[in-house]
Design goal:
It is a single chain. The protein has 214 residues and is α+β, with helices and mostly antiparallel strands. It has two domains: 32-117 and 192-211, Nuclear Transport Factor 2, Chain: A; 127-190, Roll (SH3 type barrels). It has five helices and twelve strands. A five-stranded mixed sheet has the order 1-12-11-3-2. It has a three-stranded antiparallel sheet with strand order 7-4-10, with helices on one face. It has a two-stranded antiparallel ribbon with strand order 5-6. A hairpin with a 5-residue loop joins strand 2 (101-102) and strand 3. It is globular and about 55 Å long. The chain starts with a helix and ends with a strand.
Length: 214
């Protein structure tokens, strides 16, 4: 399970504690071969090029915790037989825009916030924690774009109420014990949302996972 002590501390922090933020970082930009690969991948996303995507995914790509890995299953899950209607372009593009981090084995993860921290204790989890990633996001006093802004949001960490079912355009959120309100669900991203993992195999970069969950 993915764990991070920071977010356990956030829940227990006093009202006067400093606001937590998790801005994207790009720790992969020093690898020229990956930068060239990522540029080509972003270009393929822009033109909705299913053939290119299938050429760079690994034979054993993980795309679901309930299905066997593999290119064929990935293509079916993301409806790549009908590229114009596939949600892959939106989701993969969003992941790539939020930074990149390298794990201990050399694999690259996007977004950077999805990188697990293996040194954290077992009781520190990502449950009910999100980051405001959309430009212009705001915590509002009511679930309306016309409601008063309680706090502007820029990569701020927010706690969601227990039992949130993931539905509805707006969700209750808490920055700290003094600042609570509503935020558009489309403006936040969970640490366990979709992430892409890339590895170099046989001298070529491959996407070896595009999966959500912990």
């Amino acid at each position: 399970m993915i764990r991070l002590l920071l977010f356990a501390l956030l829940i227990a922090a006093p009202a006067q504690a400093q606001v937590r933020r998790v801005p994207p970082v790009d720790r992969c930009a020093s690898d020229r071969s990956f930068v060239a690969f990522r540029n080509a991948l972003n270009a393929a996303i822009s033109r909705r090029d299913a053939a290119y995507i299938l050429s760079i995914v690994s034979d054993d790509i993980s795309y679901s915790f309930g299905d066997a890995p593999g290119r064929a299953g990935f293509a079916e899950a993301w409806r790549l037989d009908r590229p114009a209607a596939s949600p892959l372009w939106r989701e993969l593009g969003a992941a790539l825009r939020l930074g990149c981090a390298r794990d201990r084995e050399g694999a690259l993860w996007a977004p950077s916030m999805s990188m697990p921290n293996e040194d954290d204790p077992d009781d520190a989890t990502y449950g009910g924690i999100v980051v405001a990633v959309a430009p212009g996001a705001g915590l509002r006093a009511a679930p309306s774009d016309r409601a008063r802004i309680v706090a502007p949001l820029r990569y701020d960490v927010l706690a969601l109420p227990p039992g949130d079912d993931g539905r509805g355009a707006w969700v209750r959120a808490e920055m700290d014990q003094r600042r609570r309100g509503w935020v558009r669900r489309s403006q936040v991203r969970a640490f366990t949302d979709l992430r892409a993992v890339f590895e170099k195999r046989g001298g070529r970069w491959r996407m070896t996972a595009f999966i959500a969950g912990d």
